[in-house]
Predict the structure of Efflux transporter, RND family, MFP subunit.
Amino acid sequence: MNISKKVLIPLILVLLVAAGGGGYYLWHEKKAGKVTQEAKRGEEGKVLYTCAMHPFIIKDKPGSCPICGMTLIKKVEGAQASAKEMEMLGHVSLSPTQMVMANVASVEAKVMPLNKEINAVGIVQYDQARQAKVTAWVAGRIDRLFVNTVGSYVSKGKPVAEVYSPDLVSAQQEYLLALKSREQLKNSPIQSIAQGGEGLVASARQRLILLGVKDEQLAGLEKSGQPNIRLSIYTPLSGIVIEKIALEGQYVNTGDPLFNIADLSSVWVEVEVYENEFSFIKIGQAVDIVSQSYPGKTFRGRVAFIYPFLDPKTRTVKVRVEIPNPGLKLKPDMFVNASVKVPLGSSIVVPVTAVMDTGNRQVVWVEMQPGMFEPRDVKVGARAGDNMQILSGLKAGEKVASSGGYLIDSEAQLKGGGGGHEGMPGMKMDEKGGQKPAAPVQPGHEGHTPAAPAPKKGGGMGMDDMKM
């Protein structure tokens, strides 16, 4: 009995100690699990803040980005980006130092009258309405030439040659005989005979006129009563001899050319305008002509005709400009430069360097805030010198990057937004070349590895700012 008590009491003590230890262990484990769950729930609900421009910056409280100074936005794990955050991802922010290093400058889009200047080359040509040929009215021999050299000036009222023609002599004799017959028959009591004399004179006179005899020559023939052996030939207009064909002593037939005459007091300039610009040319527009032969001298003409065909080799359309030529300064076949100013009216204008042409789109970088830019699709019109007409997509007063646009676009490419070349962030190209929304992207998980920024002077950013 005594032995049983000695064994039982220690056994009971051991059981009590084991029960107490087990209970303490269970209580401790339950408390630890509860703390772990609370910590997990706190971790899951913890709000973090990131930079839309530099998503690798993660902070646990609101503030500004240590790189670009932008206000941090909320970043909750597992949440989708809001529309505002998606829009912010398309922006590019540059610090003042970056803007200076990248030579980024911005200008304001303005509404102003725009004139398009079309420059083209041209060639001086003869005015075809002021050209003529001097021809032989009768067959015969050229007895005398009053003009012997090309380039000589001839007047409309002065003869240029004399021709001996047997046909002309016989026609003059017939005319003199008709005049005598009319004098003899005009006193006849028979009216038909008197009228017949008038008919003979009229017929002979008409033949001489057809042979090129002028009225004053007919008057001289009637006065002298003797036929002229030589017939003077006159030019139909005053001008310059551009070709001399006849020689003294040469026999010619009726209609053979003797000289080519051109009036150079007015000339044509045939200007070649490229096919993407000729639609701006209208009949009656003023054209300024300059030549290397006369530096500082400007000739003024007007568009007289636009040719209805295009040269397939040069892809140009010829435009005829009529221009006065006082002093005969403009010579045929001379090369000149032509300039046409076309008013386009008032419209929104930006520098040409502000527009990025990707082939399918035209993009400008609009400065939303100092140092922050966003890409904007625009529709452009005509180019006028260093300015570009904006038809839609931009408002007057908005500032655009006039230089450094491609560097801003490169920054957007590195950021993963795509920039002006690839389209807006969160967008992808469809089969028609347009844009359509892509799947939402979580902030900080854009699928790219951004380059680590250079540390600021003064320790503005530490390793604790980045989520590695």
